[in-house]
Design brief:
The complex is a heterodimer of chains A (318) and B (322). Chain A contains eleven helices and 14 strands. With 318 residues, chain A is of the alpha/beta class. Chain B is 76% helix and 2% strand. The longest helix of chain B has 31 residues. The chains are: A alpha/beta (318), B mainly alpha (322).
């Protein structure tokens, strides 16, 4: 696996205001990278520098080894960029829109027809081929934009908030498309403010706040970085007090209690805060069963990404 | 070369610049382009008919000879060119003033700049698309223009000069719009400025004449009244004033057309004419001052200006944001 996006001390200043400060980051080929941060954190500035639209004030960024500063043309050939707005012309048919951009990437005319049909099929717009592009719904426009980013078969897709402003259904559709594209071998770098997008589909994430990277890694990595926040729920059918006593004696358990709403007599839920690794969690399960406790359920609960996020960020905005 | 070959040729030129194809598709879609074409031909046809009307009455009158028929032919042609100059001057900036700003407003500008489309392709594509529509207007006017040929009197020089001037006007006013469009953020402001430029160039004619006469009062006095006038201007001052007048005249398509035609008629030369200079004590026998026909200044000057504006537009578009 090779590095496809790399930034070193990337900075962007607008006069006195530093939008991006010494940002260093690496994304490996094949990853689905979620770039997450609050409004004004510097996500769009970073993306605009990566896509050669904005000249960095300091540092540099490379896409597949090509510098955005010194070799923007090679970078452009490798990326498909979707901004955080639709960018659809009002006087064009759906296929003409794709045909125009195919022309912009110098794709020979005779290859365009089948290519456009395939792409429309992929984003499920085949039946709207002849319609005017501006008559499509927001979700469809977004899918058409996504098809456009794919027209020259780029290695890397850079998407600025692809799910923003969409209804829940369209959001799910876009998310599924991203997973599909990732499966097809594309590296995807996308920014978002919606945590659940990241939690469900990303292979790794980066959190940016006030122009600086706060954390980079897989979701598990990030979870580990903040201690004491793995929440585990255990359901047992009997011997609740014994189980509780045993759990409280464990070093990796910082807190254990019987859930307040656990009323059923033969099903008791115990909530605990776990600080150990995956291995020690697995050891805990083995120990519990070896002691003859009747385990009905053992699970990590909730999206603690929100917690990760709240913990990592301080609510700063540049 | 037969027609299919020409079509393939044109197609390959368009294929190399996707912007031209996209613009033309957009422009020719719907009724707008055809409405512009219809209004244009109606205006042109109406103006030429007005010039043609006297023919039907005069031709009944005894003494309607060849010379007056030629004069009529000439004036019909002149009126057609005059109307075309004005309309091209008004359509051209409108076609390009939104060219780049509209991309910004549709938020497609950033997308285009991340593709392999070069700034040069984008700018020249927009210009070529506008020019091909203007060329359509010029070609569509041929039948009306050539009504004048039925009467005779129009010389080949006049036709060539008129075409050169019309094409120059189309190129220059498109380039002005394009430059403003790449320089400014909003289509509205760009359009207003582009029209201000075209109005001051085309319709600023009466103003310009006024300026000319007040500035050059001593010279006109001399030109009109000859040596008997009260002028005691030296030949160098006179030559300077002539050059200034020539420059002012050459910026305006209509004064350029009228002056060039006058020179063509009086001096029988499409290229230049000479004005005798007043003598002074220092220069008792000054040579005649040769002046190039203003259409040459107009064509060369405006085409150079267009070239500069197009280059500047390309430079602006190719610059990454800072």
């Amino acid at each position: 696996m090779s590095t496809i996006v790399e930034t070193r001390a990337l900075s962007k200043r607008y006069g006195q205001l530093a939008a991006v400060k010494d940002l260093s980051l690496k994304v490996e080929e094949g990853e689905l990278f979620g770039f997450i941060g609050p409004n004004g954190a510097g996500k769009t500035s970073t993306i605009r520098m990566l896509t050669t639209l904005l000249r960095p004030s300091g540092g540099d960024a490379w896409v597949a080894g090509h510098s955005v500063k010194n070799d923007p043309r090679s970078v452009r050939a490798l990326i498909g960029y979707m901004p955080d707005f639709f960018g659809v012309y009002d006087d064009m048919r759906v296929w003409e829109y794709l045909d125009f951009f195919a022309g912009c990437y110098r794709i020979p005319e005779r290859q365009r027809g089948p290519l456009i049909d395939d792409l429309l099929q992929l984003v499920e717009l085949g039946h709207r081929r002849e319609d005017m592009a501006d008559e499509l719904s927001r979700g469809m426009k977004q899918r058409l934009s996504l098809a456009r980013t794919l027209i020259h078969d780029p290695q890397l897709l850079i998407l600025d908030e692809p799910a923003s402003g969409l209804d829940p259904r369209a959001r799910v559709e876009i998310r599924e498309l991203l997973v599909e594209l990732s499966r097809m071998g594309k590296t995807i770098f996308f920014s978002t403010q919606i945590l659940s997008d990241v939690a469900e589909i990303c292979t790794s994430i980066g959190i940016i706040e006030a122009g600086q990277m706060v954390a980079v890694g897989t979701l598990d990595d990030l979870r580990k970085q903040i201690a004491g926040t793995r929440r585990v729920e255990i359901t047992i059918s009997s011997r609740a007090e014994e189980v509780l006593a045993y759990l409280q004696s464990m070093e990796s358990v910082s807190e254990a209690r019987i859930a307040e709403d656990s009323k059923s007599l033969n099903r008791i839920r115990i909530e605990l805060k776990f600080t150990g690794t995956d291995q020690s969690m697995s050891d805990l399960i083995t120990a519990l069963t070896q002691r003859g406790f009747q385990l009905v359920n053992f699970s990590e609960t909730g999206h603690d990404l929100d917690e990760v996020f709240m913990h990592m960020t301080k609510g700063l905005v540049t | 070369m037969n027609i299919p070959e020409i079509a393939t040729r044109i197609n390959s030129i368009l294929g190399r610049n996707p912007v031209v194809l996209k613009e033309l598709r957009g422009r020719m879609r719907g009724a707008r382009a055809f409405a512009i074409l219809t209004v244009y031909l109606l205006l042109l046809g109406g103006a030429v008919s007005l010039a043609f009307l006297p023919l039907s009455s005069f031709s009944m009158v005894a003494g309607f000879d060849l010379a007056s028929r030629r004069l009529l032919g000439k004036s019909m042609f002149g009126i057609a060119v005059f109307v075309q100059l004005i309309i091209i001057g008004f359509v051209a900036p409108g076609l390009t003033a939104g060219a780049i700003t509209a991309e910004r407003e549709h938020q497609t500008y950033d997308i285009l700049r991340t593709t392999l489309l070069t700034a040069r392709q984008l700018v020249t594509g927009k210009l070529l698309a506008a020019l091909s529509f203007l060329l359509l207007l010029l070609v569509a006017a041929f039948p009306i223009q050539s009504l004048a040929f039925l009467l005779g009197g129009v010389t080949a020089e006049e036709v060539v000069i008129a075409m050169l001037m019309l094409i120059t006007t189309a190129v220059a006013f498109s380039a002005i719009g394009l430059f403003l469009s790449s320089r400014l953020r909003r289509t509205l402001i760009s359009t207003v400025l582009a029209y201000s430029a075209s109005i001051s160039a085309v319709a600023g004619f009466p103003l310009l004449l006024l300026m000319l006469f007040s500035l050059l009062a001593p010279l006109t006095e001399y030109l009109f009244y000859g040596y008997g006038g009260a002028t005691d201007m030296g030949p160098i001052t006179a030559a300077g004033l002539i050059m200034l007048g020539w420059l002012l005249m050459s910026t305006n398509p209509i004064s350029t057309a009228i002056a060039s035609e006058t020179i063509l008629l009086q001096e029988q030369s499409p290229w230049y004419f000479s004005i005798p200079l007043p003598s002074s004590a220092q220069f008792p026998n000054p040579p005649d001052f040769p002046v190039i026909s203003p259409w040459i200044g107009y064509v060369v000057g405006y085409l150079l200006l267009s070239l500069v504006l197009i280059r500047l537009s390309i430079r602006i578009v190719s610059r990454p944001e800072r």
